[in-house]
Amino acid sequence: MKTLYHHHQNRHFALVADGNTVLWATYVDDVGWTGLLARDRRLVGLVRTYIRHDIYVQKIYARFGPELMETFGAGLELLTNVNQDLVMTDASIDSVAIDAAVSHSLAAKILRNEDAS
């Protein structure tokens, strides 16, 4: 199985037992594992849905990995942008560069207390 976001280094463990108990844990370097164990039906539903969606994503990636990487770039980086629907085309790459330049210019004006319009 291939990791989609290895560079984020998220290490999660999610378990729903008997539909009543949930265990959610994460691992962080220099800290170790921390987590929660609960019998809250809302958390059970949330973690169950997370597990189901994670399985869906892994199956989609296993089947369409090359196409996804061609569309969204290495590590599916463009997919992680929740504000824009970007894909790896010349137009979208130009758009990303333009957006970054505009954002940088606007931020510089704001920092200099200039009119941002």
Features:
117 residues, alpha+beta, 2 helices
Provide an overview of this structure.
- There is one protein chain.
- With 117 residues, the chain is an alpha+beta fold.
- It folds into 2 domains: 1-72, no CATH class; 81-117.
- It has helices spanning 41-72, 90-111; strands at residues 11-17, 21-28, 32-38.
How do you describe this structure in short?
The protein has 117 residues and is α+β, with helices and mostly antiparallel strands. 46% of the residues lie in helices and 19% in strands.
Judging from the principal axes of the Cα atoms, what is the shape? extended
Beta-strand segment tally: 3
- Quaternary structure state of the chains depicted: single chain
The major β-sheet equals: 3 strands, antiparallel
- Return the average pLDDT rounded to an integer: 80
Query: Strand arrangement, largest sheet?
Result: 1-2-3
Total individual domains: 2
Query: In DSSP terms, counting alpha (H) and pi (I) runs of 4 or more, how many helices?
Result: 2
- The low-pLDDT segments are none
Tell me the structural class: alpha+beta
**Strand content of the residues, in percent?**
15-25%
